């Protein structure tokens, strides 16, 4: 082992030792969409020296992408006063942000956090919130281009997402409209009301010729990806998804990120805050590592 790595390893152990010596484990409040995300969070923290039941406690609230549950669980986690809050999705981050907490908060998959006023800027988040995102607003146009390449006759598309507050579909809409107008897309339909309208929108395109679907990053469609992919296949519609997990569940194609890798990256900030870092000084980081499946 090189001397620098050895010294850094000793420093990590010393920091964790000090936390234990203070007589309490550090606590993380995690607002996540599915149990699999808990496994990723725990593994990433373990690799950095945080051991459940020894120097770390994690309070989980699993929302299944439900907006109302996210809001209720956000209040529960805040009442516990953890050292750090961790949010994966737009829905979770919106629920935490609505409570105006001053607890340090890290997000992993939020779209356009500057426009949503979660952080002040990429380089200097300010306040108590920072994190990572793989989703640039321009991705909307990229999804249009890719589905048009695969299915050239498409002339109308449905944009699929949970229309309830906090899901931030508008981050992608401008680039979707700009590219759609250039490639011959003549109509765009979206869900309305609440998440129950997602299935209706998909079925509405079944009997219309030359239709296709673009799925935006969204907690509830991610949680329901197996059922939704099956419905899309039943309707025989070309569709593009923002996460590879949809293809693993039977979807046609995706252009986006590996969600587990993105969560693990965001955990690096949870680790740094637990060791005393100020979230206002941890720059918000885009994660441009995208792949086509």
The number of distinct structural domains comes to 2
Oligomeric description of these chains:
single chain
Give the radius of gyration: 20 Å
What is the SS-derived class? alpha/beta
Give the proportion of residues in helices. Answer: 40-55%
Percent strand equals: 15-25%
Query: Strand sequence of the main sheet, in spatial order?
Result: 2-1-3-4-5-11
Strand count: 12
| SSE order, one letter for each helix or strand | HEHEHEHEEHEHEHEHHEHEHEE
Q: Give the mean pLDDT.
A: 87
Fourth-tier CATH superfamily name of the largest domain: Response regulator
Largest β-sheet summary: 6 strands, parallel
CATH architecture of the largest domain: 3-Layer(aba) Sandwich
| Shape, principal axes of CA atoms | elongated
Total of DSSP H or I helical runs spanning 4+ residues? 11
Query: CATH topology of the largest domain, which one?
Result: Rossmann fold
- CATH level 1 name of the largest domain: Alpha Beta
Distance from N terminus to C terminus (CA atoms, Å) equals 38 Å
């Amino acid at each position: 082992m090189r001397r620098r790595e050895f010294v850094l390893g000793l420093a990590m152990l010393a920091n964790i030792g000090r936390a234990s010596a203070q007589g309490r484990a550090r606590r993380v409040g995690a607002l996540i969409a599915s149990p699999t995300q808990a496994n990723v969070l725990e593994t990433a923290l373990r690799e950095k020296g945080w051991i459940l039941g020894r120097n770390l406690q994690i309070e989980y609230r699993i929302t299944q992408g439900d907006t109302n549950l996210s809001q209720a669980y956000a209040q529960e986690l805040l009442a516990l006063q953890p050292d750090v809050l961790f949010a994966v999705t737009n829905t979770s981050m919106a629920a935490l942000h609505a409570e105006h907490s001053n607890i340090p908060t890290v997000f992993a998959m939020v779209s356009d956090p500057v426009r949503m006023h979660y952080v002040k800027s990429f380089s200097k988040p300010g306040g108590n919130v920072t994190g990572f995102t793989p989703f640039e607003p321009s991705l909307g146009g990229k999804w249009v281009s890719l589905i048009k390449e695969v299915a050239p006759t498409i002339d109308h598309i449905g944009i699929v997402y949970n229309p309830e507050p906090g899901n931030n579909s508008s981050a992608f809409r401008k680039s979707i409209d700009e590219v759609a107008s250039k490639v011959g897309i003549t109509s765009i339909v979206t869900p309305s009301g609440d998440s129950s309208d997602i299935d209706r929108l998909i079925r509405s395109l079944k009997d219309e010729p030359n239709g296709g679907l673009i799925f935006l990053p969204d907690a509830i469609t991610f949680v329901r990806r197996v059922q939704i992919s099956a419905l899309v296949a039943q309707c025989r519609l070309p569709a593009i998804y923002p996460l590879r997990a949809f293809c693993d569940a039977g979807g046609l194609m995706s252009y986006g990120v590996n969600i587990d890798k993105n969560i693990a990256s965001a955990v690096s900030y949870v680790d740094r805050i637990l060791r005393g870092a100020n979230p206002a000084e941890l720059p918000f980081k885009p994660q441009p590592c995208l792949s086509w499946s």
